[in-house]
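Dear colleague,

Following up on yesterday's call, I've attached the two folding results inline so they're easy to grep. Please treat them as preliminary; we haven't cross-checked anything against experimental data yet. The first protein's sequence and structure tokens come first.
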Amino acid sequence: MQPNLNGNRRHVQRIRRPAKIAAVGGMALASLVAACSSSATTSTRTATATATATSSSSPAAASTAHAVKLTTIAQFPAGVFLENLAVRTDGSILVTALNRYQLYYLPPYKGTPVQPLLLHTFAGPTTGIVETDRDVFYVTVSNLAKMESYLERVDLRGWQPGMPAPVQQVLHFPAGTQYLDGSCLLAPGVILEADATAGLIWRVDLSADGMSATASVWLKDPSMELDPNNHIPAQPGVNGVRYDARSHYLYYTSTAQQLFMRERVDPTTFDAVLAPELVSHGSMWDDFAIDDSTGMAYATTHRQNTLERVPLDPDSGEAKQTVAGSPLDLQMVGPSAFAWGRNPGDYGSVGYVTTDGGNTAPPPGVGVTPAKVLRAEVS
């Protein structure tokens, strides 16, 4: 694959600076294509944090070690690939099960494990989920084998467990869409969707009533592309996306190239401006959440079975830290996404993690384990 660099020398220098980035990634898309043609327990563990420099040009500043206490709050059968999650204002959680084409509901966690409730089964793999208004969610359905992707509206206003979930398809993505992965809210009525194999980000503009939508390419960049030299086949390019409205940066991970990037956003038009900038490198980051009060991201690494704390300012001199999963924690095998809780005091302190139980990359000697949703208490 020959990237079109558009003469942007500053961009090339920034993202190519780390020498010989290992070409490994988070989610095996080849395995996903095959998956497209199923009693909760609880335990806790505190991981020892380790730190490494965030870039080859900036020495790591002295950093306070941080750790995360993990508790299993829900469990799914081995072989289920939990891909993403959204935490509701009442503390309940919606979870996408990619290889089951399903959306699940988890009741609010109150100290004892909860039982997942199936909300809906879609026509293809379920990936990202975004809340645009209170209790109105948009779930991405993307079938790499068929090259077909859809956006489905799930309206849970007035919904109660046991009731059917109102679901309506609002968008069939245009030709050229390949595999949609992470998604996020950019502005009221505007969603961004990462296309992990096309190497670009789509912008979705919802209609005023949210019942229809249009899609256009928001940004395409070499940092988002697949790595043709990847020794693990078909690792995703651009993967997780999150917008920080305070700084007006869109942050994204590029798994195959092991990049954590940011893109400046015009706060009026919400267009991408300037060139993407390297934030960090060297990990197989998947989806993540931002803590804008501390200037940190908490990012899952999927195949590496860890959760990392990554500084959002590439010039801070601070170190990225592994805050959970080193050594391997059997609760957190194949972590795929992280989201903050919604209860008072949760932001920056209590989050939730989905895992695939090693469905993508079973750890040696462990194999595939039950997929889990974990509560993560940050210290």
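Below is the second protein, in the same order (sequence, then structure):
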Amino acid sequence: MHGTGQEDQTVGGAGRSGEPPLAGGSRPDRLGMPRSNQANPAPAEAAARRAGEPPERECESGGAITPPDSHSSDAALARAKKLLRAEVLARRRAMTEADRAGAGRQLRDALLEMPEMQMAGTVAAYVSVGTEPDTRGLIFALWKRGSYVLLPVLQADGDLDWASYEGPDSLGSGPRRLLEPTEPRRGVTAITSADLVIVPAVAVDQAGRRLGRGGGSYDRALARVGPRIQTVALLYEGELVGQVPAGPHDQPVRTAAIAGQGISRLR
């Protein structure tokens, strides 16, 4: 499903239900991002406000990410995340459709070749939205080769329920203009049955710390995933950064799939 709240996630899937072409029609979203925060990120922040990124997969509540020490450290963490997020999203919006489409195909092919993906009977994924790397071609390819694909359903409280993907016609409109599976819901713990979990991200660092859209939905979901399960964040080139600001409740990922670079094992 759409990436709904990861520490700052997004729930994926802007309203589109057509089956994505496996070879040439996927439309990823993304642009590279610098390896460290710029000294003056205000222009990127302003650009984000002006352009208005499409509805995110998660609620923009920010919730349980604060260190227990002080309000000032909490505010500093929230600001650091906001600035990095604005910078990366501005770069994604600057990408051309052709660049995004090419990045989506690269990610699809790299993921399908992962040994863990080839052995996975059940894969939890999400429907991309806005400028996110496209996942529709990947989801369709997994389903066609016989994998059981779970997609998220954003709940009113920001948590993620899950339902199966049964082809392009099994997707319908959800909240915030997202595409969600219309099959019976399996419950928030259904993600624990996945052999591999694909999650949205704005940026990731080498320690596996992941920056989402700020709703916390995926932090809740990832907290239910066992330590031996492969978790993969999808990125454009340049979005594997030196350090992602993170709090005690932000859940890390084990792997990043990077357009043009392939699979990067983390932590």
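For the second protein, one point worth flagging: The longest helix spans residues 71-93.

Best wishes,
A.L.
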